[in-house]
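[step 3/7] fold_predict: job queued, chain A
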Amino acid sequence: MKSKLAHVCIETSDLDETEAFYGLLGLQRRFEFRNQDNDLVGFYLAFGNDTFIEAIKVSELKTEGTIKHFAIEVDDLDGCYQSLTQAGVEVTEKKLEGDNTLMITCHDPNGVYIEIQSYTDASMQFHGGECRVNYRP
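[step 4/7] structure written:
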C-alpha cells in the first residue's frame, strides 16, 4: 500500500489573509465551502500534486490540537524567500539543515509554523541515513 499526504486542515479567523499568504507560496484555491446562507466558510488550496491545505473559518483560534509544523517543498527557495519578505512576512535566513536540505521558516497568519524546503542532491529524503539533531523531549 502506498500513502501520501492528502491535506492538512488549519483553522483561521481570516480566510482572505490565509489565502493571500499561501498564494505567496504558489497555492491556489481549488474549491470552497459555503454554508446554507452562502457564506464562505473555508476552501482547499492546491499544491498542484494532489495535496492540499484545507482552511476552515472559526470565530476564535484554539491552541489545542495544534499542528507543530508542516513542510512545503519549493523549487525556488530564494524566490520564495523574496516573495514572503516583500509581503512583510518574517522569514528566517536560508540554511542547510542536518538532513542536507535547504530550509527557511516562517509562520502563517494563524500562527502555524512552516518549514519551506528545497531538496539537494544529498538530501536524506532521497538517500536515507541518520540525521543527528540537538533535541530532547
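[step 5/7] annotate
The beta strands are 7-12, 28-34, 40-46, 52-57, 70-73, 95-96, 102-107, 113-118.
Residues 10 and 55 are 5 Å apart (CA to CA).
exit 0
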